[in-house]
Amino acid sequence: MSQGRVADVIVIGAGIIGAACAQALARRGVQVLVLDAGLPGATAAGMGHLLVLDDNPAELALSQYSLQRWREHAPDLPEDCAYRSNGTLWLAANPEEMAVAESKYLNLRAQGVACERVGASALRVREPALREGLEGGLLINGDGILYAPATANWMLAEPNIRQRRARVTEVDGHRVRLDDGQWLSADAVVLANGIQANELCPELPIEPKKGHLLITDRYPGTVTHTLVELGYVTSAHNASGPSTACNIQPRPTGQLFIGASRQFGTTDPQVEGWMLSKMLKRAAEYMPALAQLNGIRAWTGFRAASPDGLPLVGQHPQRQGLWLAVGHEGLGVTTAPGTADLLVAQLFNETPPLAAQPYLPQRFLGEPAHA
Fold first, then answer.
1. What predicted TM-score, i.e. pTM, was given to this entire model?
2. Same-domain check for residues 194 and 316
3. DSSP states of 220-265 as a string?
4. Contact assessment for residue 204 and residue 197, using Cβ atoms and an 8 Å cutoff
5. Which structural domain, as residue segments, surrounds residue 244?
6. What CA–CA distance (Å, rounded) separates 276 from 177?
7. pLDDT the model gives residue 370
8. Is residue 325 part of a domain?
9. Domain membership flag for residue 371
10. How much is the pLDDT for 3?
């Protein structure tokens, strides 16, 4: 078996998180080798929704910072990345949910997030396809969408990045072993391969959350904003059992992405008719015309969820040379640039752009052995 230093940093995983970390490192002059096994990942399966979420201060800080970084990236993104700043319109079905919208509005405005309350009549003007009788909503102006696979490819097209299709079977600090028995070493290894991270680090508290998606034929102009029910905050995002919530996203092609569902306790990638039906029925409750549209493809993906809903970003406290960027659940695409900036700042021993403490792996893996 051969062993040798092949790069300054090895990144495991070529999805949006690994790609963002690799790009940020490469732009610092670091020589990066990205290893990817070619397995189906969340980047290819997801909706590519860029959104600010405020379930807790740490989630808000990371998503808000990352959205700003995406807006800075926007002029450089190729057209196939399909970036659009179309805004998220959170839908309130009743007075209780409108109260949630008001609370979110006050919280987000206090943090400098551009948003506006939308009354019932204004809601129908903005999105005529919505059913009558909704209470109103909250528009987050700076939210957006992009096509994550193309964006990851753009991130990886840096001169200092080399890519290799390879399956890593073992991580030993700053060394990795491939499935052909070869060992590769670097100054640091970054683990950023989503739900597969558990195979290399069984101690990680990451659980797969299955999600279904459906895309329609082309119906340009049907929907303008990404439409999400406010019940999502309490039902799908925080639930432990199977759940669905209305999530309708217009693509630049004129197609509609329809989600969202969440299931624990399964790694079966098959589309499940009962869950897909439940998800589509929920979406049609908000937009009745969906029932007449032609769906052309449905698929599933798995989000890598941590127990507290926040990613693990930083050095593995028990494994010298190993760095983690995992556990993003449904916010991997949104928070990729923020995650990369946090990780790189720690690697270079610099002050990070936002407080790193809430995302440090120590909260689950314990303090460093030498501390």
1. 0.95
2. yes
3. TTS--SEEEETHHHHTTTT-SS-EEEEEEEE-TTS-EEEEEEEB-S
4. yes
5. 88-141+207-305
6. 39
7. 55
8. yes
9. no
10. 56
